[in-house]
# Entry
Amino acid sequence: HALCMVSDATGCGKERQGHMKMKLSRAEYKEIVRWTEQLRPTRQLVSNDIFLPFSPQKRTKRTISRHHAPDVIESHYQRYEKQTQRFILLKSSKTFLLRQLYCVLHRICLFCFIFLSTASKSVLNSMLKEPSLIPDQTLAKNVYQCTVNDCCYGPLVDCIKHAIGHEHEVLLCDKLREKNLSFLDENQLRAKGYDKTPDIILEVPVAVEGHIVHWIESKASFGDDHSHRTYLNEQFWSYWNRFGPGLVIYWYGFIGELDCQRDRGILLKDCFPTDIVVLGRAAQQD
Amino acid sequence: ASAIFALLPTKFNESILPGPHSDSLTFSDPELTVHKHEFIPFLLNFLRDQSSQALTHGPATPAKTPSRPRPSASSRGFPERRASRSGGGGSRGTSRVQLFSPTPSPGSESGLGHVSSPSFPASWSPASRPSGSERRPSQRISLGDYVLSPPELQKGRRRSGNGAGRHAGGGRAAHHADDNGRRTGRGGGTNEHVSPPSAGQLNFNNLEDFPPVGSSPVTPTPSSPHRGNKPSRRINPTPVSTDRSHSKPKMCFTSTPFTQAPSPPPLVLERPDTRVTAVSPHSLMEERELLKREKLGSKVTPDQQTACPETSKVTLASDLDVLAELYCACISENLVPNVFLELFFEKVHNCVYFAVKVLENQYHLLAHLDKCTLRLLAENERVASFSPRLRDRLSQAQDTSTAKVLSPSVSTFIHSVPFQPATDNRSNFSSDKAFHTFKKQRDIFYELLREWEDFHKEPGWIFDMALGSRIRGIMSQLTAAGNHSHFARLFLKQLVQMCKGPRVSGSSGDTPDADLLVMLGADGLGRLKRLEERLIQPHGVGGPCPPPSFPGHQEFFRDFLCQLNQHLQDSLCQQLLQLDEQVRIPPDPPRTSRQDEKQRFASVLLLARLLAKFLGFISFLPYQTTEKPSREIQEAAVALRSKSVPVLDVCGVLRNSMKHRRTILTVPWLVEFLSMLDFTGPLLLNYRVVLGTLCLLYRKMTLGRCSETSYLNRLLIVSVLGWLFQVDSSLRHAFIEENSVCGVSIQDGIPLVDQQLLYTCCPFLDEFRKLLAAFVSGSSAKGGGIVRKITPTSAEPQDAAGGNGERSQQKLQADLEQAFFHNQPPSLRRTVEFVAERVGSNAVKHMKATFVSELVEKGDKMLRDGLESPKANPSKLNESICAQLCEAGLDALSRATRFCCEKSPEAIRILLPDETSPAVLTTSENITIHLATEKACGWLSANITALIRREWKCRYERVTKTLTADSRKHGRKGHFTISQLNRIFSKDLLSVAVGPRMDEELPSGSRLQTLFRNVRDTLVLLFVVTLNITPPPLPPFF
# Structure
C-alpha cells in the first residue's frame, strides 16, 4: 500500500513539471490558508499539488505539545484501555479532539506503551515504523491503521515526502544536464569532506537573472515564512558562507516577499530558471 | 634664513630661543645651530599665526552662524557616531597643540615626554585614537571660529599668560576694544615688527607683518592673544592646556564633538612641561585651516565684504615674497612635517597673496593632484586674480593629470571565504567535535557579520551588547576545540575580501536600490557614485589629516577583534611579512608588463596596509589607554615592555626593505602599523629607532629633485609619512628628533604608484578638492562663482535593455569569471593567470618575429617595385606603403588571438591535475584564452602601428641606401673625405693616385681597372653592411 502511494506521488511528478507558477504574495497566501484550514486533511491533500503548500502539518505542530502533557496522555490511555475494539484509535481520533493528529496518536500510544514496558526511545521509533514489532497485537494493529491513514505524520508520509523531494532533485539534475551544466551532487560533496552540502554545486558558476549562482538547493515544498526562515538559518546561509551566492528552487512556490536576499546572494525561484547566462558562451558568440 | 631673521625683530629671537632651550635637556650645539633648529618650527608657527588672523573676521558676521552648524555636525557625525558606538565617548580632545615641538632636541627624553598633548579624551575608543586631541590639532580653529557664540569664542581664545587678564571681561566688545587698542597702540601700520612686544611674554605681537588691512574692524581679537601666548606658554607653563581642551572643542573643523568632556585638570597639570615642547609649529595647521576658514567663511557669509582679498590691497609684497620663498624652500626640503598641509592657503589680501605665491612655487606638488582638484583650483577666482600664470599652468596640468579619483570599482557582491576541502575538511581537524564546532563557528561568524551589516547604523545599536555574547561564545568554543588557527584564517580572509578594496562600499544592507544601479549599468553606477559624492561632499570633509580610522566593514572586524586573539596576530604577522618579502620589485620590467606590474603592486600594497593596520591595532590594543599615562607609569611600562619581544621587528623590516629597495611598499604599510601605536609605544627603543629612520627618510625624500617617473612614488611615501607625523603628536616629535641612524638612501625605482593608488592610500589628499569645491559652492552663493549644475537624467528602461545590456553582460561575464575561481583551489587561479600572462606575452613576441617581419618584407618588395618606375617619389611611396602596412598590421590582432586560442589550452591541460573535471578544464582554458588574448591584443592594438612604423622605417632606410649606393656606382659627382678614402683605398692605390715616385710604379691600365673594381665593390659592401653611413658622393675621378 505504501509503495503504491509513493509511486502515486512520483507519478504526479510529470504533471507537476508544467505546473503553474506558484509565487504568491503573502496576502494571497494568508487568504488561501484561511480557507484550507477548514478542510479536513486527507492523504490526497498531501499528495496533491494544489494543497501541498497548505498542508495542515505546519499548523498542527503548534498543538502537538498539548498532547504530550502527562495528564493528557493519561486520559488518552484511559480511553484506549476502556475500548478494546479494533481500530479504536482511528475512530476515536475521528470523533474527538485529535482530528488530524494520527501520528500524534501514535506517539501517545507508545507513550502508553511505555507505561507498560520500559522500552527505549529508539526501540519505540522502530516500532512505529514497523508495527509488527509491537508485542501487543491490538496495539500493533491500531498503530498500523494510524500509519496508513495519517496524512500528515508518520513513516508513510515521510516516505512520500522523501520521494517527492528526491524526484525533484532528480528533475533538477536532469535539467542541468540538459543545459550542459556540470555539477557536483550531494554525495560527491560529502565524499570530499564538505561540512555542509547543498543539493548540487555548479562546477562553473552561472548567472541567473543577473545573479551569480554557485549552488542550487531543491525544495519540494512551498516556501512559507516559517519554513523559509528555518531553512535560511540552517541551510541557505551556511551554503552562502562556504560557497558564495546560490539559488533555491521551491518547486511548490513560495511567498514572493521572501525573495528579498537576491543582492546578498540567495535567489528564490519556483521552477528551473530559464534566464541562465553561462561563462564565456556569450563572449564566444561575439 | 638670514632673510627671515632680517625680517624679524631681534626681540623675537631672544624670546624664542631661551624658552625651549632652557627646557630641553642637553644642548651641546652652539647657539647657531640652535637657531637653525628653531627656525623652521618658528617660521611655520609664525606663518600660521599671522594667517590665523585672517580667519578671525568670521565671528563678526552673525549671519553665518546658523548655517554653519549643520555641516559641522554632519562632518562630525560619522566619526563621532562610530566612536560612541564602540564604547568611546567619542570625545576627542581638541586642545590646541603645536604642530611639533620646537625643540628639535636630540635629548629624546624631553622630546618624547613632551610630545603628546596635555589633555586627552575622556574615554578611549578604538575609532578615535586616544591621542585624537593631538592628532587633529588642525581641526581646531576653523569651523569653530564661525560657530562659536561670543562667550564660547572667548573662552576658546583665551590664553594663559597675559591673555587671561585681557579676556576676563568676557564680552566680545571687550575683546575688540582690547585688541584694537593694542593694535593702534602699536601703530596700526605695517612695519610693526620692530616695535617692542607689549608684554614680556607676548613676543609675537611685534611680528605684525600682516596688518589686517581691509578687515581691521572685523579682524578681531583672538588672533593676537592666541598668537601671543604661544611663546608665553613656553615660558610660563601654567595649565594652559586645560584651557585649550575646554575652550576649543567647537573649533574643530571636523569630527570634534561638541560634547567634549573636559579633561580633568589633574591630567593637564600632570606634565606642565609638555607645553614647552609642544609649542610652535602648529602654524602649519593654521595655514591650512586658513584656507578652509576662508572658503567656509566666504561660503557662509557671502555678505562679508571684508573677506574678499584683492591684489591691490597687498602690502609689503616683497617681504611676502621672501617669506614665501623661504617657506617653499622648507617644503621642498621636506623640513616640514607634512608637506601637504602646506598647500592650504588663505588669508585675506596678504594671506592670499602669500598663499598663491607658495602655491605657485610648489606647483610641481600641485600638478600631481587629481584632475578635479586642479580644475577647482584653476577656477578659483582668487588664484586667477592673484596669479593668472598659476591659473594657466593649472589648467594645463589638468590635461596631463590622469587620476580619476572617484572611480571606485566596487564589486557588487561580497564573496564569502570559500570552503576548500584541502584545508577545511574533516582531515584538517583533530576530532569530529572540532570539525563540527568550526562548522558552527563559521556560520555564527557570518551571522554576526550580516547582523552587523543590517543594524550597525541604527541608533542605539551597540556592538558589544548585540553581538558580544555570541562572539565570546565563539571564542570560548575556540578554546575548547582548539580551532584557533582555523578561525583566524577565516577571519583574516574575510577581512581581506571585504576591506581590501580602495573604497569600502556601503554595506549591502543599505543598498536596496541595487537593482536600479544594475539597470543603470556600470557607467551609470559610477556617475551615481560621483553624484552621491558631490551631494554629501560638505559632510565628508575629514580634515587634512584625519586620524586613523576603520571605515566601512573594517569597523566590524575591529570591534570583533576587541575579543582579541593571539593566533590572529600570529597569522597577520606572518602573512604581512610574507607579503613584504615575496614582492620583488624588478629593476626594469619589460614595458609590456608595466601596467600589470602596477596593478599587482597596488593590490599587494593595499593588502599589506590593511593587514598592517589590524596587526598594529591588536598589537597595541592591550596597551591603549584613554589618557596619557603619567610619566612614572610610562617609564615603568617602557622598562617592562622592552623586555618582551615586539610583535614585529620594525627596524629589521625597514632596514631590509631599504636594502632590497622596496621602501615604496614597506613604508606605507609600516605607517599604517605605527599609526596604531599607543602612548608608550613610541618610547620603546625599536619604535623610536624606526620613527627616526622614517623621519630621515622623509627628509631625504625631497620631491623637487626627482624624476617625473618616480614622482608619484615619492609623493606617496611623503604623504603617508606626513600623515603619520601629523596625526599623532607623539610621532610628530620624532620628526624633530635628530636621529643618528644613518644610511638612509633613497631609491626611486620604477614608477609603481599612480594617482589612483595615491588617493586610495591617502584619502585625505582629497580634502583639498572638497575644500575648493566647498568654496565654489560658497562663492556661488554670492553670485560670482561657478555653479555646477547637476543635470538630472532619467534611467530609461528601453535604453537599459539595449545600450546598457551589453555592458552589463560584460560585467556579468567578468563577475562570473571571478566567481568561477571562488570555489576552486587557489592554485587553479594562479595557474590560469600565469599561463595567460605567458601566452599573451609569447603571442606578442611571435607576432613581432613572424607577422611584422613578413609585413616588412612585403613592404620591401613594394618599395623596390615602386622605385622601378621612373616617376617614383620615394618619400610618397614610403608613406603609402607605410599606411598599407599599418592597415594590414591590424590583422595581427586576429593572428594573436588565434595564437592564444591554440597555445593556452595546451598549457593549461598540462599544468592542471589530470583529475580536473572536464567542465572546470574547459572553463579554465577559455578563461586563459580570454585573458591571454586580452593581454596580447591590448598591447598589440596600442603598439602594433608604432612597431610596424619603426621596423618599416629601418627597412626603408636600408633599402634606399642600398639603392642609392647601387645608383651611385653609375657615377655621380661628389667627393670623399680623406678618412673614408683611407678606409677604402689600399696603400698602393693611394700611392698611385697621389703620385708615383718613378715610372715603374705606374700601374698598368688593367691593374687600375681591377683596383677600381675592387674599390667599387668595397664601397657597395660597406654601405650595405654599415647602414649608418650615409653614402657620400663618389670622388670626381670615378
Remarks:
- Chain A touches chain B at residues 181-182, 192-196, 201, 203-207, 210, 212, 214, 233, 237-238, 240-245, 263-265, 277-280, 282-284 (CB under 8 Å).
